[in-house]
Amino acid sequence: MPVISIKAETLFYIGSFAVKNSMVLSSLVFCFFIFLCISYYQETKKENKSILYYTLHLMLRTLYDLFYSIVHEKINVFFPILAAFFLWILIQNWSGLLPGVGSITVKVPAAVVHGTVLKEKVETTKHEVTKHEEALEVPLFRGNNADLNATLALALISVVMIQVYGFQFLGFKVYISKFLNFKDPIYFVLGLLEVVSEVSKVISFAFRLFGNIFAGEVLLTIVAFLVPVLASFPFLILEIFVGFVQALVFSMLTSVFFGLAVSKH
User: Fold this and answer.
1) Of 48, 90, 182, 213, which has fewest CB within 10 angstroms of its CB?
2) Which DSSP letter does residue 229 get?
3) How far apart are CA 65 and CA 26, in angstroms?
4) Is 39:29 a contact under the CB 8 Å cutoff?
5) Of residues 98, 81, 99, 100, the one with CA closest to residue 89
6) 196 vs 223: CA distance, rounded Å
């Protein structure tokens, strides 16, 4: 029976910094993402452009039109971060479906996996044994968005930028009045509810993305274990679609919140 861990496993330490298997795959995806960006930029200078350029250009043009319908004239300000959210989450989601992700394993000391770097010794009546001295097989790669730490980081970036744009476009006094308004008790209570709403966005963003991607990976693992031959293929197609939808939902909700944050009403 496959062992499923809800948190990313530690592979090794750099000093006191724990390197997780989700970070390994995320680093590879980051390099691929930078490669796409550089390739697209270089293609814009050429007369005879490649299929890669036209594919990326079509995607970016479609995203631009989509986000324009939400944020309107502020699209040029918001589009870079919105497109980055969509493409980054999409590539991360799809990278977790590649062959070898979750199936290629390495042996790691249990003390490292469990975070017990310093070996703890337990006295017994006959001899002294070392806890966690055995090696465990853990996946070398793990989908980055199947790690709650990664989705929480994306959620925090999104919500922090909502506040930044709110202050930038409305000014400190106008924007802070959405949360602290002492005109009358009703406005004061509504302001407190707005504070709760902003905090809940972090939880909503993080757990929605994490839950959908982690559940998909668990489903594929269980189906492949029960019926190894081709049974997981329909579910793989479904997860490709789910990965696209989750990237779109995250970026579109962010664009909606951007638009609300910079509106005066």
Assistant:
1) 48
2) T
3) 29
4) no
5) 81
6) 40
DSSP 118-132: SPPEEE-SS-EEETT
Q: What is the DSSP letter of 51?
A: H
Indicate the DSSP class of residue 131: T
Exposed/middle/buried for residue 222 (C-beta within 10 Å: 0-12, 13-18, 19+): middle
pLDDT at res. 178: 84
Which of 133, 130, 129 is closest to 110 using CA atoms? 133
- 148, HSE (Cβ side, Cα atoms, 13 Å): 9
Three-class secondary structure of residue 9 per DSSP = coil
Q: Which residue has the tokens 């980051």?
A: 30
H helices of the chain, in order, are 21-43, 51-71, 75-95, 110-113, 148-170, 172-176, 185-226, 233-261
For 24-63, write each residue's pLDDT tens digit: 999 999 999 999 999 999 998 888 888 989 999 999 999 9
What is the maximum span of the chain, computed from C-alpha positions, in angstroms? 80
pLDDT for the residue numbered 116:
61
Please give the pLDDT value at position 2. 62
Whose CA is closest to 221, among 239, 202, 246, 244?
239
- Spatial neighbors of 192 by CB under 8 A, at least 6 apart, are 179
CB count within 10 Å of CB 212 equals 19
Tokens standing for residue 256: 């909606």
pLDDT by residue (tens digit) across 183-226?
788 888 888 898 899 999 999 999 999 999 999 888 888 887 78
Sign, CA dihedral 203-206-209-215, equals negative
Q: What is the pLDDT of residues 79-88, one digit of tens each?
A: 999 999 999 9
Full-model pTM:
0.86
